[in-house]
Design brief:
306 residues; alpha/beta; Nucleotidyltransferase, domain 5; 5-stranded mixed beta sheet; 8 helices
Length: 306
């Protein structure tokens, strides 16, 4: 079985699921087994808010626990056996691909030994046979080649939880020398919005409320706080466009593909006065995971054909 997983700072994404990259550990059974993984005598509730930012995702077992939870969800959704072998298709930013590839592969592989765990009370036994890593962002183009057709150069902006990864494609090929990773992701946007609301109104708003208002959806809230959040969404977009220009990308001449969890927020706040050449939105935050999976399936098919 091939399974694509996008290990984001803000959320874990598979082909069919997206849930917050938070883990809360318990030594005793929690009040509900919903989203709870049991392994090594401990209980881990997955998807509970967000964990502290880890520049190195391999320093603890949180992302491994989240990976097992993601596998269990996909096995259940695909109606596959709870005991199986899997090949993981995952990703890294191209700017850190060479440096992080080996340690992240070893972190997920765990020597290829079967692991037994319970998820929501159901027993699973999974052997991760191999891990294949691909560049984030570029993998999504495998699903949407029409976006780069007839364009000699395109800028891909992947707006994640902690980082915004920039990559220029020339004639559909990533230009590695142009890759940049900026610490301007949606977590920073959310934190700054919440701090501004507290400073100006004295109110404390939740991540979920901010996300809903940035998405243009209804939410019961003080109108001044709502207006502040909307204004901050625009300021974040201006800051991101400015950072991309400072990184050497002229957005007046380069078509832009926006993707990742924060792409819809930025696209909603882009205006004519920004002078962008053209902007396309890949609004599904699961597109990276699906792209990883699709590429590995194609590679496996070609190898089988030989």
């Amino acid at each position: 079985m091939i399974m694509g997983i996008d290990h984001g700072y803000y959320a874990i994404k598979t082909r069919h699921f997206s849930f917050p990259a938070g883990v809360t550990a318990y030594t005793h059974e929690p009040y509900t087994l919903k989203n709870t993984l049991q392994i090594g005598g401990k209980y881990y509730v997955c998807g509970t808010g967000r964990q502290p930012i880890l520049r190195d995702k391999t320093v603890n077992d949180n992302y491994y626990i989240l990976t097992l939870a993601a596998i269990a969800m996909e096995l259940r959704f695909r109606n596959l056996p709870a005991e199986c072998s899997a090949t993981l298709a995952a990703g890294l930013p191209l700017a850190r691909y060479g440096r992080d590839k080996k340690p992240f592969t070893e972190y997920l592989l765990r020597n290829g030994q079967p692991v037994t765990f319970l998820f929501e009370g159901e027993r699973y036994k999974v052997k991760i046979e191999s891990v294949k890593l691909f560049p984030q962002g570029y993998s999504a183009i495998a699903l949407h080649p029409e976006l780069v057709k007839d364009e000699p150069s395109v800028l891909l902006i992947d707006i994640g939880g902690w980082t915004v990864d920039l990559m220029r494609l020339d004639n559909n090929v990533p230009n590695a020398a142009t890759c940049r990773s900026l610490e301007l992701g949606m977590i920073r946007c959310m934190d700054e919005i919440q701090e501004q609301v507290r400073r100006d109104t004295g109110l404390s708003v939740t991540d979920a409320q901010v996300e809903r208002i940035l998405a243009g959806k209804p939410c019961s809230m003080d109108k001044d706080a709502r207006r502040l959040i909307q204004n901050q969404g625009r300021l974040y977009t201006e800051r991101l466009i400015s950072a991309a220009m400072e990184a050497g990308f002229d957005l007046r001449t380069l078509p832009v593909i926006l993707m990742g969890g924060g792409a819809a927020t930025v696209m909603r706040n882009v205006s004519e006065r920004d002078g962008l050449c053209q902007a396309f939105l890949l609004g599904d935050d699961k597109v990276n995971a699906e792209g990883f999976e699709r590429i590995l399936e194609q590679m496996s098919g070609r190898e089988a054909a030989r």
